[in-house]
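Friendly challenge for the regulars: who can give me the structure tokens for this chain first? No prize, just bragging rights.
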Amino acid sequence: MIGTGSMSDPYAPLELKTEYTRKALLIIEKYGCGVALQTKSDLVLRDLDILKRINEKTKAVIQMTLTTADENLCKIIEPNVCTTKERFEALKTLRENGIPTVVWLCPILPYLNDTRENVEAILRMCTEAQVRGVICFGMGLTLRDGSREYFYRQLDRHFPGLKERYIREYGDRYEIPSPRSDALMRLFHHTCEQNGMMHDNDEIFAYLHRFEEKEPFGQLSLWQLQRNE
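First reply, four minutes later:
Bragging rights claimed.
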């Protein structure tokens, strides 16, 4: 399995011009590898033809982040990428074409999207799109030095007064948990369990890392082996 997208989105706008990701997928297909690709863009659907061919032989898994069900809030906290609705439609299209999907539920920003209504809405989308699993490391976010300053500037810009509340309650902590974290995590695990979605992070990562040789591909390999003998 070859993974991409954890540090930089493979479908950044420049991909429309360079097609580096599409070329990489063609190499992955050529050598019979699987792929676990993480993105926030519905541009992934452009390469559905290659993903389907890879998935016929082994496994092509698309991972997408869902943060908020509120489209207006999404445009503020996730600018310059597809909205939640567009990603949801992409997840459904992938599922209709037999491509397995995984959702990352993050980040959950205290006093912005850390509500029961938001988590329930996102999990309803996951259920409807029949995702294989939902990854969640807790209801909150992390703030490194440098990113914290940028984040606070954006809070001042879009949500006046909220920065002061963060500073008062969290100081310069790296981990910023929602005060509703425990209740939301219980809701998360219960809802995933009820709807047959994996929700243990270790189990999901094992699935993403596991190379699976599909039967037709395996039969071809056996035939080739017998011919060589």
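Residues 217-229 have pLDDT under 50 and may be disordered. Strands lie at 2-4, 35-39, 60-66, 101-105, 133-135, 140-142, 175-177. Your move, everyone else.
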